[in-house]
Each structure stands twice: as C-alpha cells, then as structure tokens.
C-alpha cells in the first residue's frame, strides 16, 4: 500500500487511508516523538484536521510505502524522521483503542490480526 503525502493532506486523511488497509488499526499524531515501547502523551496530541505541512516538516510530495511486514516501531520512527511528527499506532481491543507500545516489535499485519480477533471476542491481551 502507498499513501501519497502532499502538503494539503490532513492527518485525518492519512489515518483514514492507513485504516482502509488495516481496519483494526488507527494512527494518531503527536507533537513529540516517543521511544520504542513508550506510550505517547495525550497532552501532545495534534489536531487531526490540520494539514501535515502545518504541523511537521514538509519538503516535497512523496509516497509512504506500507505493507503488513513493516514493524510498528519502524513505521513510527520513519514518520518521525521524515516529517518530525510523533506517530502512534492504536489497535482495536474489544470496544477500546489501545496504544501498541507494548507490541511495537509486531508487524502491522500481526497488529491488525490481533485487533480483528479482539473485536470479535472482546478479549483483551
């Protein structure tokens, strides 16, 4: 999957395109980065309606290539490197959405499968 990142694309649009491929995962964006295995602070949450060019560093249009083999931590670190924006992947866990900080070493496909299983059973890991 490829997400085209342009100056006027909002954080919400990026998250929606991501979730179209991984329906049991969501992206949230933060003004501060977090280390692998750490949670992001709610205080640093960015407004999802803002275009990426207003909240991060943006030099030119590019395509962000994602596939199920990509580790969660790798995606989060790459987004920080490219755009200077903290990114946290959330996974559906029953009726809640949880930060994947404890499972940053999992692939996106693995996260999505677990979210699907938890949405059906409502079981928390």
What does this structure look like?
This protein is an alpha+beta fold and 125 residues long. The chain has one domain. Helix content is 33%, strand content 21%. It has four helices and five strands. A three-stranded antiparallel beta sheet has the order 2-4-5. Strands 1-3 form a two-stranded antiparallel ribbon. The termini are far apart.
Topology diagram in text:
Elements: E1 2-5, H1 11-21, E2 25-30, H2 52-55, E3 62-65, H3 72-83, E4 86-93, E5 96-99, H4 108-121
Antiparallel strand pairs: 1-3, 2-4, 4-5
**Number of DSSP strand runs:** 5
Largest sheet entry: 3 strands, antiparallel
Shape annotation: globular
Strand arrangement, major sheet: 2-4-5
The residue ranges in which pLDDT falls below 50 over 5 or more consecutive positions are none
Helix fraction by DSSP (H/I, runs of at least 4): 25-40%
Q: C-alpha Rg, in Å?
A: 14 Å
The rounded distance between the terminal residues' Cα atoms is: 28 Å
Percent of sequence in beta strands: 15-25%
Q: State the order of secondary-structure elements, H for helix, E for strand.
A: EHEHEHEEH
Structural class: alpha+beta
Give the rounded overall mean pLDDT.
88
Number of helices: 4
Total number of domains? 1
Task: Give a quick set of tags describing it.
single chain, 125 residues, alpha+beta, three-stranded antiparallel beta sheet, 4 helices, 33% helix
Write a concise synopsis of the structure shown.
This protein has helices spanning 11-21, 52-55, 72-83, 108-121; strands at residues 2-5, 25-30, 62-65, 86-93, 96-99.
